[in-house]
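hiii so um. not sure if this is the right channel but i have a protein structure encoded as tokens and i wanna go backwards to a sequence. like what aa goes where. can anyone help
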């Protein structure tokens, strides 16, 4: 989506992390709200119990491409 913004295909992007590189290309507003991340699982999955983090062990997790959490996860590796 960042490329689409740069190319003028879209006018605005939400939840983009402010970085020095991005500040050279884009203007950032003040924060306009709070975003609470959620995990989404199939409704028939009884293995994962909300709030019981030990049931998350070994689970495969997908991140949307370009998501801020994906960026932070890559940095921690």
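sure thing!! here u go:
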């Amino acid at each position: 989506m960042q490329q689409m913004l740069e190319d003028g295909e879209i006018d605005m992007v939400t939840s983009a992390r402010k970085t020095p590189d991005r500040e050279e290309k884009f203007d950032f507003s003040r924060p306009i709200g709070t975003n609470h991340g959620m995990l989404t699982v199939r409704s028939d999955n009884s293995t994962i119990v909300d709030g019981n983090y030990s049931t998350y062990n070994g689970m495969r997790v997908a991140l949307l491409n370009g998501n801020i959490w994906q960026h932070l996860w890559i940095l921690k590796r």
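oh and Helices lie at 2-6, 20-25, 68-76.
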